[in-house]
Amino acid sequence: MTREPEPGTGRIPFGRLLRAETRKLFDTRSSMIMTGVLAVLAVALVAGRAIVQTGPPKLFTLAGSAAIALGILLPVLAVLTVTAEWSHRTALTTFALEPRRARVLAAKCLPALGTAVVACLFALVAAVPATAVAAAARGVEASWYVAPQTVLGWIAVMVLMTAQGLAMGLLLLNAPAAIVICMAGTALWSFVAQLGGAGETLAAWLDLNTTTNPLMGGAWTWEAAARLTTSVLAWIVIPGGLGVLRVVRKDVN
């Protein structure tokens, strides 16, 4: 496809960049496999929770079961998105077509973050028939109420987890290393939290999985906001900013 610059500017329209990067997010073999596995696992987890759950089925409880798959695979998909140009050796071509690398990075990151939102909505939609079938099979009335703030908080958590994958991918430009860091974080912080008072304090302020809990739990305080801000700065803003600088200045010859 020929990319024509904006008339009089010599720049490719950002909308065209966004469409191209969105298409690249899903048309590589690894990305197609990842999104397929993500969808199948989300449905399987929702259906499995509907089968084993006792009592009246709850829509959001079933949908939230998909968070296990989303929290693991969305950051992986984000890492692959920002490291693909370097692993496939297409960075030179991409940045020759659009020399303003920051625009390319923005066009890469936005679809990945949007995918996190779509994945959460997909899990909610998948939970609707699962809730109805489980209620009918047990002869009970299902619970359909979902607090809007809970849903928004859940989506925000998934977006932040995806953003962490983007930040690690940009900083390292190495998919395996970035994926290992994202996936090992939970186990690492669980270990740190067992190292006494200092370890508990570090985990309480730096473990993104812990500091995002108030977004869904509703126990929102100024201290919770400070902890979330600290962990976001440590795992998303700072590594992401350094990663952008690295990509902008990196020699691709």
Provide a descriptive summary of the structure in words:
The chain is mostly helical and 253 residues long. Helix content is 79%, strand content 0%. The protein starts with 13 loop residues before the first helix and ends with a helix. The N terminus is likely disordered.
Mean pLDDT: 89
Helix content class: over 70%
Distance between the termini: 24 Å
Strand percentage: under 5%
What is the number of strand segments?
A: 0
Structural class: mainly alpha
Which blocks of ≥5 consecutive residues have pLDDT under 50?
Answer: 1-9
Shape: globular
Radius of gyration: 20 Å
Elements, N to C (H/E):
HHHHHHHHHHHH
- Count of discrete alpha- or pi-helical segments spanning 4 or more residues: 12
Give the topology.
Layout: H1 14-27, H2 29-52, H3 59-64, H4 67-87, H5 91-97, H6 101-138, H7 148-172, H8 175-193, H9 197-206, H10 208-211, H11 213-217, H12 222-249
Helix pairs in contact: 1-6, 2-4, 2-6, 4-6, 4-7, 4-8, 6-7, 7-8, 7-12, 8-9
Describe the structure using short key phrases.
globular, single chain, 253 residues, disordered N terminus, mainly alpha, 0% strand, 12 helices, 79% helix
